[in-house]
Amino acid sequence: MTGRGHAALALLLAFALLAGFAGLLPYDPLEVRGEHGLEVLRPPSERHWLGTDDVGRDVATRLAYGARTSLLLALGTLVIALVAGTALGAAAALSRPADAGVTAFADVVSAIPALFLVVAAQGLLGRASTPALLALLALPQTVVVARLARAEIRRVLAQPLGEAARALGATRLRVVVRHALPLAVPQLAVAAAGTIAFVVLAEASLTFLGFGVPPPAPSWGELLRQAHQNRLAWWLAAPTGAAVTLVSLAAHTLADELGRKPGL
Amino acid sequence: MIAGLARRSLRALATLLAVGALGWWCLEAAPGEPAEAAARAAGLLPSDPGTVSPAIRREIVAETARRQGLERGAGARFLGFLCGAVRGDLGRSWRDGQAVTAHLARALPATLALLGAGLVVAFALGLLGALGAAAAAGGVADGLTRVVAVLALSLPPAWAAVLVLRAGPGSWPLAVVCVAYVGAALIARHGRAALLEAAAEPFATAARARGASHARVLSVHALGAAATTFATLLAVVVPYLLGATLVAERAFDVDGTAGLLLDASAAGDAPVVLGATLTFGALAAAASLAADGLAAALDPRLRSHDR
Amino acid sequence: MRRRAPPLFLLLVACARTRTPHGEVRLHLEAEPPHLNPLLGGDAVGIRITLGDVYEPLWRMDDQGVPAPVLAASFTRSPDDREWTFVVRDRVKWHDGRPLVPEDVAETLKRLAPGGLQVPLAADFDDLELIEIVEPRSVRLRFRETRVGRDRSLARVPILPSHVPLETLARAPVGTGPFAFEGWDRWREIRFRNFAGYWGRPAHLARVVYRIISDRANARAQLRAGQLDLLMGASPAEVAEAGDAKVVPYEMPTFSAVVWNLERGKLGDPRVRRALGQLLDRPTISREVFGGRARLWTGPWSPDDPATDPAVPALAFDPARAKAALAEAGAAPLRVTLLYPASSRQSERVLTIWKADAARVGVELVLDPQPFDEVLRRTAGRDFDGVALSYPSEREQEFYDFFHSSRVSVRNNGGFSDPEVDRLLDEIRTTVDPSARHALEHRLHKRLAELQPLTILFGDFRAALVSPRLQGLKVDLFDAGARNLEVRR
Question: Pseudo-torsion of CA A59, A65, A69, A70, nearest 10°?
Answer without folding.
Answer: 70
